[in-house]
Amino acid sequence: MFSNWAWDISILEIKKSRLWLDLSVAFLLVVLLIGGGMLIYQLNFDAMEVEINDVIAQRGQEISTEEGCIACHTVDGSLGVGPSWLGMMGRVETLDDGTSIVVDEEYFRESIRYANRKVVEDYPKVMPSYWMEEEEYAALLAFARRLSQ
């Protein structure tokens, strides 16, 4: 009788220890994900210092910062979570379904509105869809075109 009771307590202690281990690992993963995301955002924000003389393209640069585009899309050609915007317009991209597409105004808008409809190969489907005012789309497009000159 006593041995069963002692066995039950040791099983309970093991379960408590396992729960604390699981919670600790989960907490650590959350901290690492947040920290890593902030590091990527900061690195991309540093790269965002591109001098733009066009007022509309400057507004596009501001929108890309405000909406968080630069958290995933770099402007200097370096790797990011999403494709770099440097030299993007007119570039031929292979999509995750194996088809190819030329990055033009139509694809750019569609990729913002319906982010996961046509995803560039080797990039994750993590971008949220955005609905913006027409002026905001035009400004982002002007910024992307400026980075492609």
TrEMBL record:
Domain Cytochrome c: 55-148
Domain of life where this protein originates: Bacteria
Keyword terms of this UniProt record: Heme, Iron, Membrane, Metal-binding, Transmembrane, Transmembrane helix
Transmembrane intervals: 20-41
Pfam families documented for this protein: Cytochrom_C
Gene Ontology molecular functions: electron transfer activity; heme binding; metal ion binding
InterPro entries per record: Cyt_c-like_dom, Cyt_c-like_dom_sf
Name assigned to this protein: Cytochrome c domain-containing protein
Lineage, broadest ranks: Bacteria, Pseudomonadati, Pseudomonadota, Gammaproteobacteria, SAR86 cluster
